[in-house]
Amino acid sequence: QVQLVESGGGVVQPGRSLRLSCAASGFTFSTYGMHWVRQAPGKGLEWVAVISYDGSNKYYADSVKGRFTVSRDNSKNTLYLQMDSLRAEDTALYYCAKRTAALNVFDIWGQGTMVTVSS
Amino acid sequence: DIVMTQSPDSLAVSLGERATINCKSSQSVLYSSNHKSYLAWYQQKAGQPPKLLIYWASARESGVPDRFSGSGSGTDFTLTISSLQAEDVAVYYCQQYHSTPYTFGQGTKLEIK
After folding, report:
1. Chain B residues lying within 8 Å of A50, measured CB to CB
2. B92 CB near a chain A CB, below 8 Å?
3. What is the pLDDT of residues B33-83, one digit of tens each?
4. How many inter-chain contacts (A to B, CB under 8 Å) are there?
5. A64-79 pLDDT, tens per residue?
6. Is B108 in the A-facing interface, judged by CB distances under 8 Å?
């Protein structure tokens, strides 16, 4: 079945780095754009980044621009989010999400991986 | 950035009754070229990731019960649940996909009265 499984979350000190992964299965990963969306504890959804199917186009929320980098390895069916210079306000559950064939709406979501930035 | 504002923040409705959630965008999410509003609705139940319900403001995602419907165009949108079921208790979010950043509303918590 179609599935996204995130990993790589944890507790990290402010200013440090973390890399999240999202393993995709059950669909042709290399033909879909992919997104990261986060949710701070008890809060709403915040879109973080998108990468096109081939990795040639990437867009970021202003809150993470210059600090986060989205990438993908289509040979491994895996999406990544490199998070540098982490701040307390980056603490959240990070979801990867698949866009539909033609729209930037999210039809498949992972269960999320928690990132806590704390000293 | 397009700001999405939902109302109300929370809502309590009796089983079998209608629930209505509103979403307003700070600028139009309608593309004149195709006359479509780039607006989606999601449902998030406790401890679960969001689930896509509606896109193009009114198109129901496959498998979504027909008691869920979306309406509106331009800047004002509504999600309606025609007859509330117990399993509809959740937080509902609107999202615009007209332009980056793809912003969400703050969410509306729906409970049973």
Report:
1. 100, 102
2. no
3. 999 999 999 999 999 999 999 999 999 999 999 999 999 999 999 999 999
4. 54
5. 999 999 999 999 999 9
6. no
